[in-house]
């Protein structure tokens, strides 16, 4: 007994001694340590295995010299790597040995994630079976090399083949593979189904919980002994797991049944008040929601009306006036002729002129400290810096004498040159260079200009293209003796605009009493010209028609002013921008307004024949038309004061003077002498108000204009030329048509327009029904006779006597019945 006792004592002592070692292995640190070791070892083995496949033949001889440091292995992980690989791959399972690496890594992970020991063993078993299967299979495929199957696979393969033969072995391998998959997948499949079931149950429970409105179910985690519970109990125990977090709040109860009762009671007590709270919450929410809906509707209504134009702009984009002729191609440069335009500088000529200037001035005791020459296309500018103490007025007074001494035509003295402290003497070149329209149009200055109506009129003395904006001028007066280049100048202006502006953007009204200069532009009638309704020829050659056209243009001006006023903008540019942004409603008569350029050649002729009849509308247009995009270009041969009257001069600040015969004419045009000193052939002076610039006008010949007009004319055009409003003399249109039968076809439409708009104006009818002024005026008279609009009230619109369309319908019906 005593012995027994001592032995039991010993065993308990041993157990007590072993316990700390075992418990150490169960600690978290040791588990992490082992897991890390296994994972790193798997990586180590994997690298060694891979390296082994490349170096195994070389390393074979080193395997026996594991401890010998002089012998080196080629395996990446040295001799240990080589030996382990040899053992697992060569002597073991071949390629299938890689599964060891995989399994070691998985074991490490499993230990980290606290998988049970039995599970780890099971997974090892599966891997070992797989390894065996693969090594046998590889042994069957590759018999010569034991590297793929390992010796185990190789030997097993031979052994099995001896008994079953090759075919038998294949069948066995397939059978084993199927068994393997069935067993493994079955297990995984079940687990998956179980998991899905669990999740489903939990979802249902959670749903229930929600439905019962935070019903707290607290159950005690039953001991392992209580596993034998019925199905419903099982469900509950699963549920308990999901509400694990609630467990610490449970007080210990010995009796489970009483505990359950208490819980249900607790739920009821706690549940009711929360439900009430929820209900009241819901009520308040619904109240708020009702208010919110009202507010939302009101907001939507506001925003939709405010952003209507933005919405249209967003939906349709900016209005494109060129859309109707979207395929229109601008004339190409090659339609214009190119000349040799390199300015030739003759040093002898320069030297001779310089000497002449110096000598002449010396004769008048004017010393020169410096002289500089700028060679232009037709003239050379000599800039002189006089010696100190010499008065500029002295040089200016000697202008004629100097010109005489230099014995040359076209000398002009500029004393002083504005902005510089020098005196300029312009001397014509012996050989002048033609400035082609081609070079002016193709110049960067013109091509890149952002002007509204850019005109490349020619080149300055410094050979720069001179580009001006007709819209800023705003009207241009051109004068010059016959044969000095006026017509060419007019063509240059028109060509510039044709090269830069789309047919939708600019319209010309051409007045040509000579009947020959501008006829070529007939070809572009439906593209670029504007004309009176019911007239055949767009280019006006008849003086009486000029008067009508000018008056019609005045009506157009008034209409445009009405539109600008309605749009609350100050000028055509702002108006068109607003229209493009779709802020102006076309139903209110708004439309994109093209610029209108009225060109009158031989103005003197007109004044002589029509006098005041022409002068008055021209003066009116010149005074008022700048803001609404109507610009006048008036050219005359005779720049006398009875042609270029004070009132016209005052409204034409921009003037071009070609060569004139007398100083007086020059003064009439430019308010300064100089034009009489020009050399002709396009040599001109441009006065933009203050300073005068000498320019060589760009030369555009008739064949070039013909080519351009042909090019434009051959393209798709508008259905008709731009229609100007109809103008009727005061005498006509005053008789009131009382007879119903004689009424205009559009009478009813006109009445509807007037009644709808509640505005009795002829211009409204013109815009809405696209009528000429004449017809619209007649319609207004007929409407007055019918009692739809009131009498004429001067500048105010007529009163509309019919309140709405229904009343109008009745009125017209009554008329019929009478
Ligand atoms: N810019 C220019 N460059 C070179 N030559 C020019 C230029 N302008 C005009 N000429 C020459 O002058 C000639 C007459 O020009 P143009 O027909 O323009 O004169 P005009 O002033 O219109 O004459 P008219 O008043 O008699 O019609 C042209 O045929 C041309 O040879």
UniProtKB/TrEMBL annotation:
Compartments where found: Cell membrane
GO biological process: cell division; chromosome segregation
Main location: membrane
Annotated positions binding ATP: 480-487
Topological category with respect to the lipid bilayer: Multi-pass membrane protein
GO CC terms of this entry: plasma membrane
TM regions (residue ranges): 33-54, 93-113, 120-141, 163-183
Gene3D superfamilies: 3.30.980.40, P-loop containing nucleotide triphosphate hydrolases (3.40.50.300), Winged helix-like DNA-binding domain superfamily/Winged helix DNA-binding domain (1.10.10.10)
Domain FtsK: 463-667
UniProt KW Iron keyword: no
Keywords: ATP-binding, Cell cycle, Cell division, Cell membrane, Chromosome partition, DNA-binding, Membrane, Nucleotide-binding, Transmembrane, Transmembrane helix
InterPro entries: FtsK/SpoIIIE/SftA, FtsK_4TM, FtsK_alpha, FtsK_dom, Ftsk_gamma, P-loop_NTPase, WH-like_DNA-bd_sf, WH_DNA-bd_sf
GO molecular function terms attached to this record: ATP binding; DNA binding
Entry similarity comment: Belongs to the FtsK/SpoIIIE/SftA family.
PANTHER family: DNA TRANSLOCASE FTSK, SPORULATION PROTEIN RELATED
Name assigned to this protein: Cell division protein FtsK
Organism: Polaribacter porphyrae
Lineage, uppermost ranks: Bacteria, Pseudomonadati, Bacteroidota, Flavobacteriia, Flavobacteriales
């Amino acid at each position: 007994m005593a012995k027994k006792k001592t032995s039991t004592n010993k065993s308990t002592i041993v157990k007590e001694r072993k316990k700390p070692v075992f418990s150490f292995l169960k600690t978290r640190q040791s588990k992490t340590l082992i897991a890390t070791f296994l994972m790193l070892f798997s990586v180590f083995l994997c690298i060694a295995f891979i390296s082994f496949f490349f170096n195994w033949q070389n390393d074979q001889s080193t395997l026996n010299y594991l401890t010998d440091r002089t012998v080196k292995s080629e395996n990446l992980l040295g001799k240990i790597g080589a030996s382990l690989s040899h053992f697992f791959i060569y002597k073991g399972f071949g390629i299938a040995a890689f599964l060891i690496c995989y399994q070691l890594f998985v074991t490490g992970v499993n230990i980290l994630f606290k998988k049970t020991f039995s599970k780890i063993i099971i997974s090892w078993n599966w891997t070992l079976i797989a390894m065996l299967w693969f090594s046998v299979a590889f042994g069957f495929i590759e018999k010569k090399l034991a590297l793929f199957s390992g010796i185990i696979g190789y030997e097993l393969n031979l052994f099995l083949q001896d008994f079953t033969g090759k075919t038998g072995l294949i069948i066995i391998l397939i059978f084993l593979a199927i068994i393997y998959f069935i067993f493994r997948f079955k297990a995984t499949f079940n687990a998956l189904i179980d998991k899905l079931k669990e999740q489903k149950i939990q979802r249902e429970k959670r749903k229930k919980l929600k439905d019962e409105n935070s019903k707290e179910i607290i159950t005690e985690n039953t001991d392992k002994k209580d596993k034998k519970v019925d199905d419903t109990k099982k469900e509950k125990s699963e549920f308990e797991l999901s509400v694990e977090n609630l467990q610490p709040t449970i007080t210990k109860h010995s009796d489970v049944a009483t505990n359950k009762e208490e819980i249900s009671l607790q739920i009821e007590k706690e549940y009711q008040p929360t439900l009430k709270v929820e209900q009241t919450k819901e009520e308040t929410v619904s109240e708020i929601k009702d208010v919110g809906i009202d507010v939302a509707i009101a907001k939507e209504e506001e925003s939709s009306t405010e952003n209507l134009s933005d919405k249209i702009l967003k939906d349709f984009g900016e209005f494109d006036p060129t859309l109707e002729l979207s395929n229109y191609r601008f004339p190409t440069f090659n339609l214009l002729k190119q000349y040799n335009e390199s300015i030739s500088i003759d040093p002898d000529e320069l030297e001779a002129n310089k000497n002449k200037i110096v000598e002449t001035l010396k004769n008048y005791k004017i010393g020169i400290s410096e002289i500089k020459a700028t060679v232009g296309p037709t003239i050379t500018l000599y800039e002189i810096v006089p010696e100190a103490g010499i008065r500029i007025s002295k040089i200016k007074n000697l202008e004629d004498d100097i010109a005489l001494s230099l014995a040359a035509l076209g000398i002009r003295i500029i004393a002083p040159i504005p902005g510089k402290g020098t005196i300029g003497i312009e001397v014509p070149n012996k050989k002048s260079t033609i400035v082609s329209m081609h070079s002016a149009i193709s110049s960067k200055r013109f091509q890149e200009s952002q002007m509204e109506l850019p005109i490349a009129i020619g080149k300055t003395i410094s050979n720069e293209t001179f580009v001006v904006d007709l819209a800023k001028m705003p009207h241009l007066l051109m004068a010059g003796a016959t044969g000095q280049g006026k017509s060419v100048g007019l063509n240059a202006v028109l060509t510039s605009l044709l090269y830069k502006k789309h047919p939708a953007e600019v319209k010309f009204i051409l007045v040509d009493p000579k009947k020959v200069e501008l006829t070529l532009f007939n070809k572009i009638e439906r593209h670029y010209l504007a004309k009176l309704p019911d007239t055949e020829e767009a280019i006006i050659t008849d003086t009486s028609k000029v008067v009508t056209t000018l008056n019609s243009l005045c009506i157009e001006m008034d209409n445009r002013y009405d539109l600008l006023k309605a749009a609350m903008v100050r000028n055509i540019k702002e108006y068109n921008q607003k229209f493009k942004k779709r802020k102006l409603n076309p139903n209110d008569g708004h439309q994109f307004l093209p610029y209108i350029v009225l060109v009158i050649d031989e103005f003197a002729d007109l004044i002589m024949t029509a006098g005041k009849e022409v002068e008055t509308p021209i003066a009116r247009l010149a005074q008022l038309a700048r803001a609404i995009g109507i610009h006048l270009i008036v050219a005359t041969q005779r720049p006398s004061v009875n042609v270029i009257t004070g009132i016209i001069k005052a409204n034409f600040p921009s003037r071009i003077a070609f060569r004139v015969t007398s100083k007086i004419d020059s003064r009439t045009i430019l308010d300064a002498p100089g034009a009489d000193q020009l050399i002709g052939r396009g040599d001109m002076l441009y006065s933009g108000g203050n300073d005068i610039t000498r320019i060589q006008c760009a030369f555009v010949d008739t064949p070039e204009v013909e080519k351009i007009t042909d090019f434009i004319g051959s393209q798709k055009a508008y259905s008709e030329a731009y229609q100007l409003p109809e103008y009727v003399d005061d005498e006509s249109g005053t008789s009131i048509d009382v007879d119903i039968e004689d009424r205009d076809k559009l009478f009813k439409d006109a009445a509807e327009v007037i009644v709808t708009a509640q505005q009795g104006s002829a211009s409204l009818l013109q815009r809405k029904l696209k009528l000429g002024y004449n017809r619209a005026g007649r319609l207004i008279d007929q409407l007055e006779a019918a009692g739809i609009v009131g009498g004429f009230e001067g500048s105010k619109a007529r009163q509309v006597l019919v309140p709405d369309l229904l009343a109008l319908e009745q009125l017209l019906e009554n008329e019929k019945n009478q």
